[in-house]
Specification:
Layout lengths: L2 H21 L1 E2 L2 E2 L3 H26 L5 H24 L5 H23 L8 H19 L5 H25 L1 H7 L1
Antiparallel strand pairs: 1-2
Helix pairs in contact: 1-2, 1-3, 2-3, 2-5, 3-4, 3-5, 4-6, 5-6
Protein backbone atom coordinates (compact mmCIF):
# COMPACT_ATOMS: atom_id res chain seq x y z
CA UNK A 1 0.00 0.00 0.00
CA UNK A 2 1.98 2.97 -1.29
CA UNK A 3 1.27 6.67 -0.66
CA UNK A 4 -0.96 7.28 -3.71
CA UNK A 5 -3.09 4.26 -2.80
CA UNK A 6 -3.31 5.44 0.83
CA UNK A 7 -4.56 8.83 -0.41
CA UNK A 8 -7.17 7.07 -2.56
CA UNK A 9 -8.34 4.95 0.40
CA UNK A 10 -8.43 8.07 2.57
CA UNK A 11 -10.72 9.72 -0.03
CA UNK A 12 -13.08 6.73 0.04
CA UNK A 13 -13.14 6.70 3.85
CA UNK A 14 -13.84 10.43 3.96
CA UNK A 15 -17.07 10.03 1.95
CA UNK A 16 -19.32 8.62 4.74
CA UNK A 17 -18.08 11.26 7.20
CA UNK A 18 -18.69 13.95 4.60
CA UNK A 19 -22.22 12.67 3.85
CA UNK A 20 -23.12 12.55 7.56
CA UNK A 21 -21.94 16.14 8.01
CA UNK A 22 -23.88 17.24 4.93
CA UNK A 23 -27.15 15.69 6.10
CA UNK A 24 -27.02 15.86 9.92
CA UNK A 25 -29.45 18.29 11.51
CA UNK A 26 -28.05 20.82 13.97
CA UNK A 27 -30.55 23.22 15.53
CA UNK A 28 -33.16 22.10 13.01
CA UNK A 29 -31.00 22.86 9.95
CA UNK A 30 -28.94 20.60 7.72
CA UNK A 31 -25.47 21.50 6.50
CA UNK A 32 -25.34 24.84 8.23
CA UNK A 33 -23.04 26.32 10.85
CA UNK A 34 -20.00 24.29 11.82
CA UNK A 35 -21.23 21.17 9.96
CA UNK A 36 -21.18 23.02 6.66
CA UNK A 37 -17.64 24.27 7.13
CA UNK A 38 -16.28 20.91 8.33
CA UNK A 39 -18.00 19.16 5.39
CA UNK A 40 -16.48 21.73 3.03
CA UNK A 41 -13.02 21.22 4.55
CA UNK A 42 -13.31 17.44 4.17
CA UNK A 43 -14.46 17.83 0.58
CA UNK A 44 -11.58 20.19 -0.28
CA UNK A 45 -8.99 17.91 1.34
CA UNK A 46 -10.43 14.88 -0.45
CA UNK A 47 -10.47 16.77 -3.77
CA UNK A 48 -6.80 17.69 -3.33
CA UNK A 49 -5.87 14.07 -2.61
CA UNK A 50 -7.31 13.32 -6.06
CA UNK A 51 -4.88 15.82 -7.56
CA UNK A 52 -1.86 14.55 -5.64
CA UNK A 53 -2.28 10.78 -5.72
CA UNK A 54 -2.07 10.55 -9.49
CA UNK A 55 0.85 12.94 -9.75
CA UNK A 56 2.79 11.13 -7.05
CA UNK A 57 2.05 7.73 -8.61
CA UNK A 58 3.26 8.81 -12.05
CA UNK A 59 6.29 10.81 -10.84
CA UNK A 60 7.65 8.07 -8.58
CA UNK A 61 6.46 5.14 -10.74
CA UNK A 62 4.06 3.94 -8.06
CA UNK A 63 1.20 3.18 -10.45
CA UNK A 64 -0.64 0.00 -9.38
CA UNK A 65 -3.63 -1.95 -10.60
CA UNK A 66 -5.36 -1.04 -7.33
CA UNK A 67 -4.78 2.65 -8.04
CA UNK A 68 -5.93 2.36 -11.65
CA UNK A 69 -9.19 0.83 -10.44
CA UNK A 70 -9.83 2.67 -7.20
CA UNK A 71 -8.71 6.22 -8.03
CA UNK A 72 -11.47 6.92 -10.58
CA UNK A 73 -14.02 5.09 -8.41
CA UNK A 74 -13.02 7.18 -5.39
CA UNK A 75 -13.40 10.36 -7.45
CA UNK A 76 -16.85 9.34 -8.66
CA UNK A 77 -17.90 8.30 -5.16
CA UNK A 78 -16.85 11.66 -3.71
CA UNK A 79 -18.42 13.83 -6.39
CA UNK A 80 -21.61 11.78 -6.81
CA UNK A 81 -22.16 11.59 -3.04
CA UNK A 82 -21.74 15.34 -2.76
CA UNK A 83 -24.12 16.00 -5.66
CA UNK A 84 -26.78 13.69 -4.24
CA UNK A 85 -26.52 15.43 -0.85
CA UNK A 86 -26.83 18.79 -2.61
CA UNK A 87 -30.04 17.60 -4.32
CA UNK A 88 -31.38 16.59 -0.89
CA UNK A 89 -30.48 20.06 0.40
CA UNK A 90 -32.17 21.63 -2.67
CA UNK A 91 -28.99 23.41 -3.74
CA UNK A 92 -28.80 21.84 -7.22
CA UNK A 93 -31.55 20.60 -9.55
CA UNK A 94 -31.87 16.82 -9.69
CA UNK A 95 -31.83 16.80 -13.50
CA UNK A 96 -28.35 18.37 -13.52
CA UNK A 97 -27.09 15.65 -11.20
CA UNK A 98 -28.73 12.97 -13.35
CA UNK A 99 -26.89 14.26 -16.44
CA UNK A 100 -23.57 14.32 -14.55
CA UNK A 101 -23.99 10.84 -13.07
CA UNK A 102 -25.28 9.38 -16.36
CA UNK A 103 -22.11 10.60 -18.09
CA UNK A 104 -20.02 8.83 -15.45
CA UNK A 105 -21.93 5.56 -15.95
CA UNK A 106 -21.57 5.72 -19.73
CA UNK A 107 -17.84 6.36 -19.61
CA UNK A 108 -17.24 3.78 -16.88
CA UNK A 109 -19.16 1.20 -18.90
CA UNK A 110 -17.16 1.84 -22.06
CA UNK A 111 -13.91 1.72 -20.06
CA UNK A 112 -14.89 -1.67 -18.62
CA UNK A 113 -15.63 -3.06 -22.07
CA UNK A 114 -12.35 -1.64 -23.39
CA UNK A 115 -10.44 -3.11 -20.45
CA UNK A 116 -11.92 -6.50 -21.24
CA UNK A 117 -10.25 -6.18 -24.65
CA UNK A 118 -6.98 -5.09 -23.02
CA UNK A 119 -7.45 -1.43 -24.00
CA UNK A 120 -6.87 1.27 -21.39
CA UNK A 121 -8.73 4.52 -21.98
CA UNK A 122 -7.16 7.32 -19.99
CA UNK A 123 -8.88 10.50 -18.95
CA UNK A 124 -9.03 13.23 -21.58
CA UNK A 125 -8.17 16.88 -21.10
CA UNK A 126 -11.90 17.70 -21.27
CA UNK A 127 -12.64 15.11 -18.59
CA UNK A 128 -10.00 16.56 -16.28
CA UNK A 129 -11.26 20.12 -16.78
CA UNK A 130 -14.82 18.87 -16.16
CA UNK A 131 -13.75 17.29 -12.88
CA UNK A 132 -12.04 20.48 -11.70
CA UNK A 133 -15.12 22.59 -12.45
CA UNK A 134 -17.44 20.04 -10.83
CA UNK A 135 -15.34 20.05 -7.66
CA UNK A 136 -15.18 23.85 -7.53
CA UNK A 137 -18.95 24.02 -8.14
CA UNK A 138 -19.61 21.50 -5.36
CA UNK A 139 -17.40 23.48 -2.99
CA UNK A 140 -19.35 26.66 -3.65
CA UNK A 141 -22.65 24.80 -3.23
CA UNK A 142 -21.56 23.29 0.08
CA UNK A 143 -20.50 26.73 1.31
CA UNK A 144 -23.87 28.10 0.23
CA UNK A 145 -22.89 31.74 0.73
CA UNK A 146 -25.56 34.06 -0.69
CA UNK A 147 -23.10 36.65 -1.97
CA UNK A 148 -21.60 33.97 -4.26
CA UNK A 149 -24.93 32.71 -5.65
CA UNK A 150 -24.31 34.09 -9.16
CA UNK A 151 -20.83 32.52 -9.23
CA UNK A 152 -22.26 29.22 -7.97
CA UNK A 153 -24.97 29.17 -10.64
CA UNK A 154 -22.46 30.07 -13.35
CA UNK A 155 -20.15 27.27 -12.18
CA UNK A 156 -23.07 24.83 -12.34
CA UNK A 157 -23.80 25.72 -15.98
CA UNK A 158 -20.09 25.54 -16.90
CA UNK A 159 -19.71 22.16 -15.16
CA UNK A 160 -22.83 20.88 -16.93
CA UNK A 161 -21.57 22.07 -20.32
CA UNK A 162 -18.16 20.50 -19.70
CA UNK A 163 -19.86 17.27 -18.67
CA UNK A 164 -21.64 17.11 -22.03
CA UNK A 165 -18.62 18.29 -24.04
CA UNK A 166 -16.34 15.72 -22.39
CA UNK A 167 -18.87 12.95 -23.09
CA UNK A 168 -19.14 13.92 -26.77
CA UNK A 169 -15.33 14.17 -27.00
CA UNK A 170 -15.01 10.75 -25.38
CA UNK A 171 -17.50 9.18 -27.78
CA UNK A 172 -15.83 10.74 -30.84
CA UNK A 173 -12.35 9.60 -29.75
CA UNK A 174 -13.57 6.07 -29.05
CA UNK A 175 -16.08 5.64 -31.88
CA UNK A 176 -14.24 2.64 -33.33
CA UNK A 177 -14.33 0.85 -29.97
CA UNK A 178 -18.02 1.68 -29.62
CA UNK A 179 -18.75 0.30 -33.10
CA UNK A 180 -17.14 -3.01 -32.09
CA UNK A 181 -19.43 -3.33 -29.07
CA UNK A 182 -22.52 -3.87 -31.21
Amino acid sequence: MNLPNKLTVMRVLAVPVFVILMLVEVDGQRCEGWCKWVALAIFIIAAFTDLFDGRIARKYKLVTNFGKLMDPLADKLLVCSALICLVELERIPAWVVIVIIAREFVISGVRLIAADDGVVISASKWGKVKTVFQMIMVGFMIGNVEIFSIITTTLMWIALALTIISLVDYIIKNIDLLKDIG
